[in-house]
Amino acid sequence: SDAPMIGITGSNGKTTTSFLIYQALNMLGEKCAYIGTIGFYIDDKVKDLNNTTPDLIDIYEMLIECKRNGYKFVAMEVSSHALDLGRVDTLMFDYAIFSNLTEDHLDFHKTFDDYISAKNKLFHMVKKEGAAIINVDDSSYEKMLNKNNRNILFGFNNSDYKVLDYRYEN
Predict the structure, then answer these.
(1) How far is CA 146 from CA 5, 47, 52, 124, 129, in A?
(2) pTM for this model (two decimals)
(3) Distance CA 84, CA 120 (A)
(4) How far does CA 40 lie from the centroid of its chain?
(5) How far apart are CA 33 and CA 26, in angstroms?
(6) pLDDT tens readout for residues 62-119
C-alpha cells in the first residue's frame, strides 16, 4: 500500500482514536480508510470484521481495495493479540500511536511484561521517515520508545505537545 498507515495501539481508546483520525482526515478532504473493532470503512462501512485487527491476508485485501479507490491514508487499530500472533508482521507504519496500558488481556499474555512486549512490537514497525506518537502520561510510555524512531511525545506531563487546557462538551 502506498497510503500512509497509521497504527494505533493501547488498552483503551484505540477505536475512538482511530475513528476520530479517520473522520478528521476525511473532513479535511484526505481520503482515509478505517480498519478496526467497528469494521472496515472507506466512504461508509464496507463490512464487519471478526477481530479488532484482522488476519494479514484480509488486511492486504482491504489495503488493495483502498489503493484501488484512491485512499490516501489508513487508520488501523493494532491489538496486542495481533502483534503477538503475527497478524501485522509484514506491515510498516508511517505513524504508530500509543494511548495507554492497563492490566488487560492477561488471560492471553499471562504477564504485564509480555503484554508490554506485544505492544512494543508496533514501535519496531515504523518507517524510517515515519514517527511514533506516544502518550507520556502513561507509566509505560518509556517502554514504547525506540531510539530509531522519531518519537513525538504528548500529554499533560512535560512533552513535545503538552495539553495546557481542555473542555468537554456534550
Answers:
(1) 18, 34, 25, 7, 14
(2) 0.90
(3) 10
(4) 14
(5) 9
(6) 999 999 999 999 999 998 888 988 889 999 999 999 999 887 656 666 777 888 888 8
